[in-house]
Amino acid sequence: MSPPEFGVIPPQGWRLDLPEISPAEQWRLITEISRTAEKLGFHSIWLYDHFHTVPTVEERSCFECWSTLTALSQHTSKIKLGQIVTCNSYRNPAYLAKISSILDVISNGRLILGIGAGWYEHEYKGYGYPFPPPKERILMMGEAIKIIKSMWMDRTTTFHGKYYHLKNAYNYPKPVQKPRPKILVGGMGKQYTLRITAMEADIWNGYGPLSTYMEALDALKRHCRQIGRDINDIQISVRLDIVVSDTESKAEELAGSHGITRDKWDKVIVGSPKGVYDLLRKYLDIGVTLFILYFIPPTKLEPLELFEEEVLPRFSK
User: Fold this and answer.
1) CB 239 within 8 A of CB 294
2) C-alpha–C-alpha distance, residues 306 and 45, integer Å
3) Peptide bond into 273 cis (omega under 30)
4) CB atoms within 10 A of CB 303
5) How many whole angstroms separate alpha carbon 43 and alpha carbon 79?
6) Taking each helix axis from N to C terminus, what angle separates 210-227 and 193-200, rounded to the nearest 10 degrees?
7) Per-domain residue ranges for the chain?
8) How far apart are the first and last CA of the chain?
9) Tell me: the pLDDT tens digits for 118-149?
10) Which of 99, 111, 142, 233 could form a disulfide with 196 if both were Cys (CB 3.0 to 4.6 A apart)?
């Protein structure tokens, strides 16, 4: 079995994780974390696709996903570039096919398209986007993925769905990756999201406590059986927050300083290098081969370096 892949979510501002310095200095910090992730051998960089901060909406920097990834493509050379995840509602799918094609070209084939149905109602209303019910947003995403695949691969695209209509749409240049870049679908909805994942995705991304994650994975497997698709054709990934330090006690103290108390540990990986390995191993044992990690604190290089030195080698033994 090949070792699992590990991606990094650099600070972006959405989680109020950028210091209150000038935007230019914030950008330098984002590039430093991203370039360090590449130097240390991480598989990928992932950015959130949001405009308003969480957990509270504040007048703070929040770097936009696609423009930031495009810029990062010119500050890196090997590391994959993904979104965790693109909100389908924020861009017409034909336009998303265009900009994703261009990012794949200028990054020399490093794009992974992460997509989700969207959920942040405050953001929708703030930016003037319609906010249809969850089922409708999810079904719109399903149509969008079909459009994107066609525009990546076909000479022209004509599409007549319930939500989107295209007639003889051209998209050139095509992506570098052949036959096309991989598509990651993010979400845990058992009835609709995971059905679309089974039908359309190359990668599935879930989150949450292990027990909840396993329930969603079981639902994905059921959908795959129903449509006759081999679950092994879909790469299984998980997004996790992680606090790693030299010892368990230091990791617990560091977590506490960031408001992560023990009652939240089912949603966060906290521990020494060995403890972190043991916790991640539980996901590996159920089929996860791509870990997308948000290191805490996100603006420091030390957690990435410690993970590379003390955790990654354990997966190669």
Assistant:
1) yes
2) 18
3) no
4) 20
5) 6
6) 60
7) 5-316
8) 11
9) 999 999 999 999 999 999 999 999 999 999 99
10) 142
Nearest CA among 277, 283, 311, 148 for reference residue 204: 283
Distance between alpha carbon 46 and the CA centroid of its chain, in Å? 5
pTM beyond cutoff 0.85: yes
Residue type, position 271, single letter: G
Backbone dihedral region for residue 208 (phi beyond 0: left; psi -120 to 50: alpha; all else: beta): left
CA-nearest of 189, 211, 203, 192 to 231 is 203
Topology (CATH level 3) of domain 5-316 = TIM Barrel (3.20.20)
Show the tokens assigned to 26. 């914030």
With helix as H, strand as E and coil as C, how does the chain read?
CCCCEEEECCCCCCCCCCCCCCHHHHHHHHHHHHHHHHHCCCCEEEECCCCCCCCCCCCCCCCCHHHHHHHHHCCCCCCEEEECCEEHHHCCHHHHHHHHHHHHHHCCCCEEEEEECCCCHHHHHHHCCCCCCHHHHHHHHHHHHHHHHHHHHCCEEEEECCCCEEEEEECCCCCCCCCCCEEEEECCCCCCHHHHHHHHCCEEEECCCHHHHHHHHHHHHHHHHHHCCCHHHCEEEEEEEEEECCCHHHHHHHHHHCCCCHHHCCCEEEECHHHHHHHHHHHHCCCEEEEEEEECCCCCCHHHHHHHHHHHHHHHC
- Reported as a pLDDT band with limits 50, 70 and 90, residue 264 is confident
Cα separation, 208 vs 214, whole angstroms:
10
Residues 6+ apart with CB under 8 A from 256: none
Predicted confidence (pLDDT) at residue 1 exceeds the cutoff of 80: no
Distances (CA, A) of 136 to 95, 126, 143, 146, 227: 20, 20, 11, 16, 21
